[in-house]
Amino acid sequence: MSDNKPLQHVVLIGFMGTGKSTVGKQLARRLGCSTCDVDAEIVKREGEEIASIFSSRGENAFRAAETEALEAVLSTRDTLVVATGGGAVLAPANRELMMKNGFVVALTADPEQLIARVSQDPDRPLLEGNVRERVYKLLEDRKHAYDFAHLTIDTTTLAVEEVVERIAQAMIR
């Protein structure tokens, strides 16, 4: 049989701090495939840290690099669990790429839980200044940005293993 369409990728989307990278690693282990963190792919391709790209070239340059990296990752033949950056869903082209090439899972969490998870991370350029204020503003700005996903899971009170299990079960159906 010459079916040249690979198994679908699993694309994890959601606000920063929802657990995309952590869930991605464990889900890949569970599915027996590799994982790819789009932010790490951008750093590798650009030879520059995310915060540095934001400060030296601006958010638009970062978003362009993000789309290129996402396109490259999703065009691979081997099935991957792909953890995207929180803002990757903002570009319509990115949403289209994700839907065309993967099973899209949105991870969500309570705002206070997100603040607790991300407040100590210096590598989050969009959170400079008052973290609580920035998180609430970004959440409001992106209120419906993740609505296109095939599956949405609130990670606020779930262990990583529970999230992985829910995704795996949804993929079987």
Q: How does this structure look, described?
A:
- The protein is α/β, with parallel strands linked by helices and 173 residues long.
- It has one domain (9-172): P-loop containing nucleotide triphosphate hydrolases (Rossmann fold, 3-Layer(aba) Sandwich).
- Helices cover 50% and strands 14% of the residues.
- The protein contains eight helices and five strands, in the order βαβαααβαβααβα.
- It has a five-stranded parallel beta sheet with strand order 2-3-1-4-5.
- Helix 2 (38-46) crosses helix 4 (59-74) and helix 3 (50-57) packs across helix 4 (59-74).
- The two termini are 24 Å apart.
Can you tag this structure with a few keywords?
single chain; Rossmann fold; Shikimate_kinase_CS; 50% helix; kinase; ATP-binding; alpha/beta
